[in-house]
Amino acid sequence: MTTLVAALVVAAPAVGHADDREALQAKGEQLAKEGRFNDAIDAFKAADRIQPRASHACLIALAYTRRESWPQAELFLSICHQRANAGDPLPDWVPQADEMIKDRIASANLAEVMIETKPATARVTVSSFAPDEVFEPRTIHLPFGTHVVFAKADGYFDAQYTLEIKDKSPQHVVIDLIPLTAKQKQERARGAGPMTTEPAPKRGTPFLIGGSAAILGGIAAHLWWRHEHTVLVDATTGTIDQAKVDLYNAHSTRYDIAHYSTIGLYAVGVGLVATGVVLRMKSPESPAVAAVPLRGGGAMVSVEWSR
Question: In 3D, which of 98, 124, 171, 183 has the Cα closest to residue 301?
Answer without folding.
Answer: 124
